[in-house]
Amino acid sequence: MNRDVIERYFAAFNAGDTDAMLAELSDDVAHHVNEGQIRTGKALFAEFCAHMSRCYRENLTDMVIFTTHDGTRAAAEYVVNGTYLETDDGLPAAKGQTYRLPAGSFFDLKGDKITRVTTYYNLADWMRQVSG
Question: Which pTM value belongs to this model?
Answer without folding.
Answer: 0.94
